[in-house]
Amino acid sequence: MKTFYIETFGCQMNAHDSEKVVGTLLQSGYSQVGAPAQADLVLYNTCSIRDKAEQKVFSRLQQFKHEAGKGKVFGVLGCVAQQEGEAIFERAPHVSLVAGSASYTRLPEMLVQLEAGNRRVTGLKLDTEETFDTPFTRRENPHRAYITIIEGCDKACAYCVVPMTRGPERSRTSESVMREARTLADFGYAEVQLLGQNVNSYRDPSPAGWDFARLLAATGEIAGIRRVRFTTSHPRDFGKGIVDAIESNPVLCNHVHLPVQSGSTNVLNRMQRLYSRDDYMRRIEWMKNARREIAITTDIIVGFPGETEADFNETLHLADEVEYDSMFIFKYSKRPNTPALQYEDHIPEEEKTRRFMVLQERQRAIQIRRNARCVGSREQVHVEGYNMATQQWIGRTSQNKTLNFVDPELPSPSGDNTLAGQFTDVLVTRAGPNSLAGERVRP
Length: 443
Ligand code: SF4
Hints:
Helices cover 32% and strands 23% of the residues. The chain folds into three domains: 2-123, Methylthiotransferase, N-terminal domain (Rossmann fold, 3-Layer(aba) Sandwich); 144-372, pyruvate-formate lyase- activating enzyme (Alpha-Beta Horseshoe), CATH 3.80.30.20; 378-441, CATH 2.40.50.140. Helix 8 (212-220) links the parallel strand 10 (191-195) and strand 11. The protein is α/β, with parallel strands linked by helices. It starts with a strand and ends with a strand. Helix 8 runs parallel beside helix 9 (240-248) and helix 12 packs parallel to helix 13. The chain has a six-stranded parallel β-sheet with strand order 2-1-3-4-5-6, sandwiched between helices. The chain has a five-stranded mixed barrel with strand order 15-16-17-19-18. The protein has helices spanning 12-27, 51-62, 79-84, 87-91, 107-115, 162-166, 174-186, 212-220, 240-248, 265-270, 277-288, 309-322, 349-372, and strands spanning 2-8, 30-32, 41-46, 73-78, 95-99, 121-123, 144-148, 150-151, 170-171, 191-195, 227-231, 255-257, 295-302, 326-331, 378-387, 392-397, 402-406, 423-431, 436-441. It is globular. The structure holds iron/sulfur cluster. Residues 153, 155, 157, 160, 162-163, 197-198, 234 line the site of iron/sulfur cluster. Iron/sulfur cluster is lined by residues 153, 155, 157, 160, 162-163, 197-198, 234.
């Protein structure tokens, strides 16, 4: 039996792509092993969102340069594959497969070429209508299932490689998304997460013509589905209909991840984000004025070329004004083929680090304040597992907060007796900057 090993870098889209790649390989008669040394086929599903991420795959490949010509086959998948293309064969001659995410539907065919001894197999076509719809998906998480609804991106943010590595936007039909969600519910999945680089620009290509808010609402109506999440949104396409949908159905989680990237309209224009600070704040107001308390999280890039101290202060003020429940902060990283690469005024690394630390400290204080308000409240969590080290169950609230808790009647899993996958109520007794703690309460 042929064996394979796969390692995945980067975002949830990559993680889910790997679940489908694994499913396709198992369907093609391969079996999965836990280490590259044991595998006939070694695959790296890569990320190129930042230079550091890109370098990781080449340092992995470097470890196996002595394996060239000894029968073990190496493949590079994902965003670095699409970005670097056939140049990877020069840089790492022991690599035999280079395929971007837009070519995965051709994976079975590419495997046949590899098995036939072809040592330069590529899948680099980007102009495609196809989405990677496959019934063969080996899901990692037994309690929450990813569903890709749209692939690619038609935006052109000045720092981002995604349009060049994942191609133009192409949405799946609402019928195929609903069929997958119903099948998952039949398999016992109570929580699904709709995925896309920009889920808000979803447009059903079938005559039904659903937009994202319609698809979200319909997914929340499926019998057996108790929670629906979605990521990632783009403020330009984030419509009021999404907030209305969340308001009208508690199955739709009251958490929105809305990357702002900067609090300065000057910087947003240079980033080609297509919205101003005021446009963005209007969307925040919709959520702040909602009856259900919607948790808001975001992404921010510090040190973008040309970002002045005044621009950075506008980002700090926006963090104070919005009071995000959490924030992913990134230092600007030069990326190949992106417009920002041509910009003159790049910020020194130490200054990027200073701004990163200042914003991180500011946000930490906000999270401590916001989470402290949850102490004494009763939260329903979806139990994701058990932490042996802390001897606590790991739960997640609808607002996407981690709530670790103890259960006096079931202090730890024993045999089949586990809380994992269940929904249960927890009284919050403590709060920290990044998570909550509590004790299970019975009805
Ligand atoms: S919306 Fe912008 S940042 Fe997001 S994937 Fe598209 S180009 Fe990249």
